[in-house]
């Protein structure tokens, strides 16, 4: 009898263990599958937007996400819920690609950084609303709470699908399609003076390789639908285009390796690990994360066109590295302390650095990734180049969100954040060396910024600093060596 009882206990423990592992896998898959499916949207959105236009692509993105939200809200089982999240993921891929591209092409150079950062503030505001809704809907029975939470996503996407009809089409896309008069009409709506609109139209035509009377070339461009772009991007790029591709794809690659997805998705688990026990306290702290994220992205929007992309991005990474190192240290001390006897300083440090990390990310790395990667490509390559960047962004997002639980169980939660800190150092090195400043440059001039490599830019910068110094004496002496 004793042996049979032991066997039953082993079977029960095995069943419980399998259930826990299955639950962890289900949570990670559900969290990350949206980003995997966003690959489908992002990789097709560039070609679609080259064919049908930026405005209709935004409307298509909203309709796809609307369908996914309805499917998730009405899902009778986990498989349907997963299918709805996949459909929504395709819409997310479309939206993440087209929103910053449209903003970059419609904005003037002096406010382009702010406008192309708006998608990030909208994402952050959506996350904040999700946290607040989660707090309020937690009072409903579980079977209704999660359905309402997922189904409510249909409302803003329905509003966008209709509201986009009042937005103008991208003047740059219209020029490529041979519709210069319509492009001029749009430019006159967004420019301060008619002369400025005429000048911008001439610049766009020159960048597109179209003379004022080159109707045949415009017709050929209109019929191409963006064909041959991937060959020019990856198979036979010119040196400036190669540098642009490395910079634009690299900045997407590193964005989620800073650990933001782990903090946003799993902040309740982090707060629990830091000693916040009650459900309401965890939800309230999570709402605080959303408020912090939104507030600092708004700050970034105000600063990005004033102080430049590089200073803001590198300062952001410095804050991220310090915050992640302190968060890792605090969580390590808590994890190694007896239950409910963690040092107060470690608990305070862990909680505070979650907020400083989110603030640091939101003031630079978050919004500037989208602004920078959408503005550096030449017109003919912009939509499809941006689509590849979004695809990489979603792969990294999915990789972090689907593996974070397994990662921190393997190397401890403190060790996971030490790892993210090291990756943030690599991101800072990459951006410092390979991503030149684009602040205030018209889109048609940014390709020229990448005509020189990092060493040549450093030499030119040193020469520019040295020249005034050598001429400061007022004489016509020889320049300093």
TrEMBL record:
Membrane topology term: Multi-pass membrane protein
PROSITE patterns reported in the protein's UniProt record: MFS, SUGAR_TRANSPORT_1, SUGAR_TRANSPORT_2
Coarse class of the protein's main subcellular location: membrane
Residue ranges of the TM segments: 20-44, 56-76, 82-103, 115-138, 144-167, 282-304, 311-334, 346-372, 410-434
Gene3D superfamilies in UniProt: MFS general substrate transporter like domains (1.20.1250.20)
Cell compartment(s), UniProt: Membrane
GO cellular component: membrane
Keywords linked to the UniProt accession: Membrane, Sugar transport, Symport, Transmembrane, Transmembrane helix, Transport
InterPro entries for this protein: MFS_dom (IPR020846), MFS_sugar_transport-like (IPR005828), MFS_trans_sf (IPR036259), STP/PLT_plant (IPR045262), Sugar/inositol_transpt (IPR003663), Sugar_transporter_CS (IPR005829)
GO-annotated molecular function: carbohydrate transmembrane transporter activity; symporter activity
Domain called Major facilitator superfamily (MFS) profile: residue spans: 1-439
Protein family membership: Belongs to the major facilitator superfamily. Sugar transporter (TC 2.A.1.1) family.
PANTHER family: POLYOL TRANSPORTER 3-RELATED, SOLUTE CARRIER FAMILY 2, FACILITATED GLUCOSE TRANSPORTER
Official protein name in the record: Major facilitator superfamily (MFS) profile domain-containing protein
Protein source organism: Oryza nivara
């Amino acid at each position: 009898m004793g042996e049979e009882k032991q066997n039953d206990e082993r079977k029960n423990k095995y069943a419980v263990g399998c259930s826990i592992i299955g639950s962890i896998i289900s949570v990670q898959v559900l969290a990350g599958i949206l980003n995997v499916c966003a690959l489908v949207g992002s990789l097709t959105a560039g070609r679609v937007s080259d064919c049908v236009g930026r405005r209709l692509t935004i409307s298509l993105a909203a309709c796809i996400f609307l369908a996914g939200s309805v499917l998730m809200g009405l899902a009778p089982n986990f498989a349907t819920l997963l299918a709805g999240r996949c459909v929504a993921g395709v819409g997310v891929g479309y939206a993440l690609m087209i929103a910053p591209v449209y903003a970059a092409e419609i904005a003037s150079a002096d406010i382009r950084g702010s406008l192309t950062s708006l998608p990030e503030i909208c994402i952050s505001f959506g996350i904040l609303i999700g946290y607040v809704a989660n707090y309020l809907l937690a009072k409903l029975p579980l079977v209704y709470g999660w359905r309402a939470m997922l189904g409510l996503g249909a409302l803003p996407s329905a509003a966008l699908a209709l509201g986009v009809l009042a937005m103008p089409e991208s003047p740059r896309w219209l020029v490529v399609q041979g519709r210069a008069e319509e492009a001029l009409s749009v430019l006159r709506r967004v420019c301060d003076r008619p002369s400025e609109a005429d000048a911008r139209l001439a610049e766009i035509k020159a960048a597109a390789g179209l003379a004022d009377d080159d109707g045949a070339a415009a017709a050929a461009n209109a019929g191409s639908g963006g064909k041959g772009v991937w060959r020019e991007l990856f198979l036979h790029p010119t040196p400036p285009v190669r540098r642009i591709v490395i910079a634009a794809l690299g900045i997407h690659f590193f964005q989620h390796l800073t650990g933001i997805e782990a903090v946003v998705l799993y902040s309740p688990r982090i707060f629990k690990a830091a000693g916040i026990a009650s459900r309401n306290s965890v939800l309230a702290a999570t709402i605080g994360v959303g408020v912090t994220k939104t507030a600092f992205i708004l700050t970034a929007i105000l600063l990005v066109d004033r102080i430049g992309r590089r200073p803001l991005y590198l300062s952001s990474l410095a804050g991220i590295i310090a915050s992640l190192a302190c968060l890792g240290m605090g969580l390590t001390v808590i994890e190694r302390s007896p239950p409910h006897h963690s040092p107060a300083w470690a608990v305070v440090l862990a909680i505070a650095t979650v907020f400083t990390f989110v603030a640091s990310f939101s003031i630079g790395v978050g919004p500037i990734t989208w602004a920078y990667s959408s503005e550096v490509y030449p017109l003919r390559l912009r939509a499809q180049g941006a689509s590849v960047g979004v695809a990489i962004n979603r792969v990294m997002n999915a990789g972090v969100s689907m593996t974070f639980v397994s990662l921190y169980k393997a190397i401890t939660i403190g060790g996971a954040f030490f790892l993210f800190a090291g990756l943030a150092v690599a991101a800072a090195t990459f951006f410092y060396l390979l991503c030149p400043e684009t602040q205030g440059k018209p889109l048609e001039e940014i390709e020229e910024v990448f005509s020189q490599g990092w060493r040549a830019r450093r030499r030119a910068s040193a020469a520019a600093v040295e020249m005034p110094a050598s001429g400061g004496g007022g004489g016509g002496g020889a320049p300093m060596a």
